[in-house]
């Protein structure tokens, strides 16, 4: 069974309008230079494993108060047994939201078709119209952009509650890139979130010295795409 490597007992921000526990699963197939959870993603053996019974107890003691469970990572879809894991979580009586980098559309399709997940948040690391190199640079590995596009289309066509997110990192994602991403997803979605970059624990040491965009710059980015996506926000 998949090991749980982190558990946030309650969050008000990961699933809009809900109080959710957040479960962190290990491993990731990307190597984003700004990844803020490198231990979890690349060296999970260094982290303690949290038993599933801990989550079970939480669901029981917080019954009627907890609205759902967000499954995050790392990248949850790197685990082939994710459907079985989600099934187990759902048996606790809680709906599941999945956070993903969108690299495995086939597994995403299964999860949606089998109605295992109620909501999805997908990271879009950069614009996909500028060719492979830019997306690869942002992910730190070679990525099949076709799969990223397939996941975006799949999420929207399925009608599942979904949101797209981009972490805005100086030197990687600027206002023009945000506009291009918004143009791509605007006919398809209403929800887009720009995430502030957190340098302290960045995977690549050189990024730990990078100064994040100021709140004013991020507010300007949000404003610049509001006409395309009304429900754009930042955090
Ligand atoms: S930030 Fe990138 S490398 Fe880190 S967990 Fe997310 S997708 Fe993986």
From TrEMBL:
<keyword id="KW-0949">S-adenosyl-L-methionine</keyword>
<keyword id="KW-0411">Iron-sulfur</keyword>
<dbReference type="InterPro" id="IPR058240">
    <property type="entry name" value="rSAM_sf"/>
</dbReference>
<dbReference type="InterPro" id="IPR006638">
    <property type="entry name" value="Elp3/MiaA/NifB-like_rSAM"/>
</dbReference>
<dbReference type="InterPro" id="IPR034457">
    <property type="entry name" value="Organic_radical-activating"/>
</dbReference>
<keyword id="KW-0004">4Fe-4S</keyword>
<dbReference type="InterPro" id="IPR013785">
    <property type="entry name" value="Aldolase_TIM"/>
</dbReference>
<dbReference type="Pfam" id="PF04055">
    <property type="entry name" value="Radical_SAM"/>
</dbReference>
<keyword id="KW-0479">Metal-binding</keyword>
<dbReference type="GO" id="GO:0003824">
    <property type="term" value="F:catalytic activity"/>
</dbReference>
<protein>
    <submittedName>
        <fullName>Anaerobic ribonucleoside-triphosphate reductase activating protein</fullName>
    </submittedName>
</protein>
<dbReference type="InterPro" id="IPR012840">
    <property type="entry name" value="NrdG2"/>
</dbReference>
<dbReference type="GO" id="GO:0051539">
    <property type="term" value="F:4 iron, 4 sulfur cluster binding"/>
</dbReference>
<dbReference type="GO" id="GO:0046872">
    <property type="term" value="F:metal ion binding"/>
</dbReference>
<keyword id="KW-0408">Iron</keyword>
<dbReference type="InterPro" id="IPR007197">
    <property type="entry name" value="rSAM"/>
</dbReference>
<feature type="domain" description="Radical SAM core">
    <location>
        <begin position="14"/>
        <end position="235"/>
    </location>
</feature>
């Amino acid at each position: 069974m998949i090991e749980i490597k982190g558990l946030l007992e309650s969050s008000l921000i990961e699933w809009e309008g809900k109080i959710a526990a957040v479960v962190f699963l290990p491993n990731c197939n990307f190597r984003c230079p700004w990844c803020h959870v490198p231990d979890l993603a690349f060296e999970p053996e260094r982290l303690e494993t949290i038993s599933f019974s801990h989550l079970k107890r939480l669901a029981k003691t917080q019954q009627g108060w907890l609205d759902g469970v967000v499954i995050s990572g790392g990248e949850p879809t790197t685990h082939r047994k994710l459907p079985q894991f989600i099934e187990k979580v759902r048996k606790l009586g809680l709906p599941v939201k999945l956070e993903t980098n969108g690299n495995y559309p086939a597994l995403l399709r299964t999860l949606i078709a089998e109605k295992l997940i109620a909501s999805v948040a997908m990271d879009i690391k950069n614009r996909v119209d500028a060719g492979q190199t830019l997306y690869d640079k942002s992910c730190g590995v070679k990525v099949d952009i076709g799969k990223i596009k397939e996941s975006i289309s799949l999420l929207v066509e399925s009608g599942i509650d979904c949101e797209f997110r981009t972490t805005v990192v100086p030197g990687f994602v600027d206002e023009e890139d945000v506009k291009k991403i918004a143009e791509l997803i605007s006919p398809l979605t209403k929800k887009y979130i720009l995430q502030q970059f957190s340098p302290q624990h960045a995977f690549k040491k050189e990024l730990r010295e990078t100064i994040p965009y100021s709140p004013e710059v991020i507010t300007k980015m949000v404003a610049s795409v509001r006409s395309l996506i009304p429900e754009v926000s930042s955090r």
